[in-house]
Amino acid sequence: MLIITILLRLLPLLDFIFVTTLAQNPPPYTPSDLILINCGASSDDASGDGRRWNGDAHSKFCPFNSQTSPASEASQQDQSIDRVPYMTARIIHSKLTCTFPVLPGTKFIRLYFYPDAYSGLSTSASFFTVTANDYTLLSNFSAYLAVSAKTQAGPYLFKEFIVTVWEDQELKLTFNPSLNSFAFINGIEIVSAPDGLYTRDMDNPYTLVNSNIFFQLDNTTSLETVIRLNVGGQDVNDTGMFRTWRDDSEYIFGGSGLVHKWRDDVTIKYTKDTPAYSAPPNVYITKRSMGPEPLINLNYNLTWHFPVDSGFNYLVRLHFCETEDVITGIDQRVFFIFINNMTAEEEADVFFWSGGRDIPVHKDYVVAVPKGSPSNQDLWLALHPNMHSNPTCADAILNGLEIFKLNNSDGNLAGPNPERLTVPAPPEQHPMLVGRTKRKEPSHVVVIVGSVVSVLFAITLILCFSVYRPKSKAKDKSSMLLFSYTSSSATIALSLPTDICRKFTIAEIRASTRNFDDQTVIGSGGFGTVYKGYIDSGSIPVAIKRLASYSKQGIREFHTEIEMLSKLRHLHLVSLIGYCDDQGEMILIYEYIPHGNLQNHLYKTKNPPLPWKQRLQICIGAARGLHYLHTGAKHCIIHRDVKSSNILLDKNWVAKVSDFGLSKTGPTGEDQTHVSTVVRGSFGYLDPEYYRRQQLTEKSDVYSFGVVLFEVLCARPPVISHLPKEEVILVDWARKCYRRGGLDQIIDPQLKGDIAAVSLNKFGEIADCCLKDKAIERPTMGDVVWSLEFALQLQETAEKIDNAGDVVSESQIGSLVTQEETTTNDDELFTHSGGPVSGSRSTVSIGRSK
Hints:
Layout: H1 2-10, E1 19-21, E2 34-38, E3 45-46, E4 52-55, E5 71-73, H2 83-86, E6 88-92, E7 96-100, E8 105-113, E9 117-118, E10 121-122, E11 128-132, E12 135-141, H3 143-148, E13 157-165, E14 171-177, E15 183-185, E16 187-193, E17 206-207, E18 214-215, E19 223-230, E20 236-237, E21 244-247, E22 258-261, E23 269-271, H4 281-285, E24 286-289, H5 294-297, E25 302-309, E26 312-320, E27 335-339, E28 342-348, H6 350-354, E29 361-369, E30 376-385, E31 397-398, E32 400-406, E33 444-445, H7 453-468, E34 482-485, E35 492-495, E36 502-503, H8 506-512, E37 521-524, E38 528-535, E39 540-547, H9 552-565, E40 576-580, E41 587-591, H10 612-631, E42 637-638, E43 647-649, E44 655-657, E45 664-665, E46 675-676, H11 688-693, E47 695-696, H12 699-714, H13 730-739, H14 757-770, H15 781-803, E48 808-809, H16 810-816, E49 819-820, E50 843-844
Parallel strand pairs: 2-4, 19-21, 36-40
Antiparallel strand pairs: 1-23, 2-16, 3-4, 5-6, 6-15, 7-14, 8-13, 8-16, 9-10, 11-12, 11-14, 13-19, 17-18, 19-32, 20-21, 22-24, 24-31, 25-30, 26-29, 26-32, 27-28, 27-30, 33-49, 34-35, 37-38, 38-39, 39-41, 40-41, 42-45, 43-44, 46-47, 48-50
Helix pairs in contact: 10-12, 10-15, 12-14, 14-15
Membrane topology: Single-pass type I membrane protein
Binding site for ATP: 545
GO molecular function: ATP binding; protein kinase activity; protein serine/threonine kinase activity; transmembrane receptor protein tyrosine kinase activity
C-alpha cells in the first residue's frame, strides 16, 4: 500500500502518465441519448451493424404527413448498399422541424442521404437547408452533387455534426427546401458524447497554428466532421459513439510510408487525458511510418491531403502511440509536424508526450483556411524527421487523425456545393520564345583550331540560328471546351472543335481494340490501361487510354489531358487525336508511339542499349517539348510529372513528352512568381522546394528533368533502397560524384568508351544546375535546350578529332568551346569550362577508347 501511495505522489510530475490499464477491448462509452430514425420506413428494422432503427410512420419527433412530407422508396434498390437507412426516405416540400427532447450535453447529429429518384422526383433538383437550434448545418445543400464529388465508391453519404444542447433546451432539427425545390432525408441519428470530447474550458484555449493568437473552442462551438482516419489500418467502428475510422490510403500522398501493426497482444494503456473513448485500441496498434531507410526519409515528407471548404477554421486532432520495442525513451524518434505549410510542432516526441510505450496520446491544432478561390481547397498534413537532437530513428509516425470544421461567427457550418467540372478554353498560343530569362542572351565567337575549322563554323551557324531565329505568331480562336459529369452514370459531355479533337463512339473504340482484347494491351497510363488500336478502316495505328474505374481523380486527369493537349501541337509533345465518352466510358486516343517510353530503354529491359548520341538527342527533344510548354502559349504550362516513363519515343526515336493529367497553368500575372497548389508528382522526381512550400513554378519541371538526365546517364531508377546509403538516391549520389570529378565512374557500363570527356562534363554540369536546391538558381528549359545541344556538338566534334587520331590537352579542348563576346556574369547558370573533368588532369583523350 505504501508503494502505491509513493507512486501516486510521483506521478503528478508527469501528469499525463496517470495510466489506467485496460483490457484489449475497453468498455464502450454508454450514450445517454441514442435516437435512430429510418425515414420513410413504416416499421422498425435493423441495420447491417445490428442496431435497431425506428420507422417514422408515427414518429414522436417529426410531424411528417403524406401531403407535405410523404414517405417514398428509392427507385433503384441497390443491393450493395445497406437497406437501413438508405433505401427509404422522407420527401419534404415545405419547412419542417423535428424536435428531440434530449438530455443536456454534447450530441452527434448524423444525417444520411442516398440521392436516388423518389416517387418520380430526381434528387438532382433537390436543394435545401438544415439547421440545428441556432446552427446552420447545411445551406442550399445538394446531396446529389455531394455524392457526385465523392472519391470513394458508393452513391450515398452521411454528414456528421457535433452540437451542444443546453439545460432546458430541446434539439430542434429543421429542414427547409430552397425555392421551387424539395428536401429529402433517409436517416437521422442522434448520439450523445462525453462533454469536452473535442472542446476545452474557457481557461484553456487553443493557439492558432503558426501564431500567438488564442482560439476559444468551448461548448458554444459546433463542429462538422471532415474526416476520421485509422492511419495505417483498415476501417474500424467504435461501439460507444458509433464513429467510423476510415482507412487513410485515399488521402496519403503518393502511397508513401509503411503501415505497421505491432504485437497483436499489446494492451493499450489509456490515461485520464486520453480516456478509452478517445479512439478504439485498433487505431493505436496500427500506424503509418516513413520506413526503415533514414537517407530516403530525410529527403521526403510523409504527407496527407484533405479537401476542405475555405473560409473556416479547422480543428486537427492527431492520435499517436509508440508501440515499437526499439523505442525505449525520449529523443529517440523526433519529428516535425507541418499543417498547411506551417510548423505546428518542431520536436514531436510521442514517447515524451505519453510517458512510455503503449500509452496513447492525442494532440490538437487549430488552423485557419482563409476564404479564397476555389472555394474548395486542400488542407495538408506533413511529417518529417527532426535530426537536431540526434535521435536514433530518422522517422515519423501517425496512428489516427480527425479533422473538424468549426462554425463561423454567425453559427454557420455550411460550405458551398461541389461544382460540376468544366473545361476552360485552352490557352491562346503566342510565338515560341528561345528562353524566358532576364539575363542578356550571349552571342558567341568561334575559335577555330587546326583540323576542325569547318566543323566549328557549322556549330557557329547553328548557335546563331538558335539565338536569333525569327518569331512567328499563331493565335487560336476556337471555341471553348465544355465538360460535365454526374455520378449515377459517369456521363461526360464534351463539345470540341472536330478539326482539333475528334469524338469517337464506343463502337469504334471496341472495334479498334477487338473489344478491349488483352492481346492489344501495350501498357498502363496515368489513370488506366493503354491499348493499341487502329482507326479509319485500320489504316492508322493509335494508342487508346481507357479509364480503369470511375473516380474523381480519373475525371480530373481526363479533363486536364483534354484541356492541355487539344490545342497544343508540337513535334516533341504527344498528339491527342480524340476522345470517347459513350456509355460512361472515359477514353483518350493518341498517336501511336512504337518504341514506348524512355525508361524501358534504360534499365530492367531486354531492349538494346541506346548509344550516347541518341540519348543526347532524346534529351534535347524532351527539353524542347518542355520549353514549348513553358513559353509557347499565352500562359506557362507546368507539366508536374516529368519522368523517364512520360517521355515517349516514336518510330524515328524522336522524344515526345506525354501524360498531362497533372499539368497546371503557371503564374498568369506579372506580379506572380508561383502558383500555390497541393503537391503532385512522382516519388524520386519531386522538386524538394515545391514539396516543402507548395509553390509551383516551371522550375519544378526543370528539377524533375535534371533527375531524368542522370537517369539517362546512369541507366538506373531515381531511388534504389537496397544500395549502400550514399547511393540510394540517384540525385545525391550523381551530384556528389560530379563535384568530385568522378562522374565517369557511375555512368551506364554500356556507355564506357562511348562518351567524350568534355561532353560528359557538360552534361553533368547541366544536370547539376537543374537540381539546385533553390528554384531561382536553376536554369530555364531554354537554357537547358541550348546547353544539351552544345554537349551534343562537343561529342560530335570529339568524334571527328578522334577519327583523325588526335589527342589534345584540356586547355586545347577549352579553346574549341565557343566563348562569349561579353564578360560572363557571376551568376551565369552554365560555365563553358565544362565543370570538373573526368579522367586525367593533364591530357584527356576526347574520343572513344580503342
